[in-house]
Amino acid sequence: MSLPTYPTVSPDAGVHRRVLSENADLMVVSFRFETGAEGKLHKHPHVQSTYVASGRFRFFRDGVPYELAPGDSLVIPGNVEHGCQCLEAGELIDCFTPRRDDFLAVPTP
């Protein structure tokens, strides 16, 4: 049996998102950022963890800045405003609980 594959989408300029795996309780997502790209400030009810696989990022969580480098991670509670700026091109691996159903929707052109 083969695992499902998910398309890569670009939610913002210089940002590429791909769901790696998911079920109703948990979702794992790869975000690739170009230098200077931003994950705009937002919030959602899901608890999110982010792990820096490569690159350097400045995160904002509830107005507090954090600089993260490869091997660093951060947990973002549900309904807390957050976003990031990419200081050096790289990849984040994010986990969401429960699953982000909006990430499974087919994007429209």
In short:
The protein has 109 residues and is mainly beta. The protein is built from no helices and eight strands.
Describe this structure in words.
It comes from Rhizobium straminoryzae. This is Cupin domain-containing protein. The chain is 0% helix and 61% strand. With 109 residues, it is mainly beta. The protein has one domain: Jelly Rolls (Sandwich). The chain is globular, with a radius of gyration of 13 Å. The model has no long low-confidence stretch (mean pLDDT 94).
Q: Structural class given helices, strands, pairing?
A: mainly beta
Query: Helical percent range?
Result: under 10%
What overall geometry do the principal axes of the alpha carbons give? globular
Structural domain tally = 1
Largest sheet, if any?
A: 8 strands, antiparallel
In CATH terms, what is the architecture?
A: Sandwich
Give the SSE string: EEEEEEEE
**Number of helical regions:** 0
Q: Give the full name of the CATH homologous superfamily.
A: Jelly Rolls
Q: How much strand content do the residues show?
A: over 45%
Number-wise, the strands total 8
CATH topology (fold) name: Jelly Rolls
Q: What is the residue-mean pLDDT, rounded to a whole number?
A: 94
Distance between the termini: 31 Å
What is the CATH level 1 assignment? Mainly Beta
Q: Over all CA atoms, what is the radius of gyration?
A: 13 Å
Write the layout of secondary structure elements.
Elements: E1 8-12, E2 15-23, E3 26-33, E4 38-42, E5 47-61, E6 64-68, E7 73-76, E8 82-97
Antiparallel strand pairs: 1-2, 2-3, 3-8, 4-8, 5-6, 5-7, 5-8
Protein name: Cupin domain-containing protein
Domain Cupin type-2: 31-86
Pfam families: Cupin_2
